[in-house]
Specification:
With 84 residues, the protein is mainly alpha-helical. It has a domain of 42 residues. Helix content is 48%, strand content 5%. It has 2 helices and 2 strands. A two-stranded parallel ribbon has the order 1-2.
Length: 84
């Protein structure tokens, strides 16, 4: 079975309720803006990290293979595009 993985989707979530601010001179609006800037910066960093993208792709391939083999699929191949 040949499979084409969809393009990598990068999503970063910063959860304010789970983020602890030890000390700050920022008000809540400034803190929210700072967290949004951090989120955008993290997303850009992850999108530019080819090594991390490779690890994500490998993890997806391993998970799909582990799912399909017990279902009777004898061979799983990942390709960039399906042949015509």
């Amino acid at each position: 079975m040949a499979l084409v993985l969809p393009p990598l989707l990068t999503r970063v979530e910063l959860l304010p309720g789970e983020t602890e601010v030890i000390g700050s001179n920022l008000d809540s609006a400034e803190t929210a803006r700072l967290l949004e800037l951090a989120k955008v910066a993290f997303e850009r960093e992850v999108q530019a990290d080819r090594g991390l993208q490779g690890k994500a792709r490998t993890a997806a391939e391993q998970a799909l293979t582990a799912l399909l083999l017990p279902l009777g699929v004898t061979r799983v191949t990942f390709v960039e595009r399906l042949p015509r």
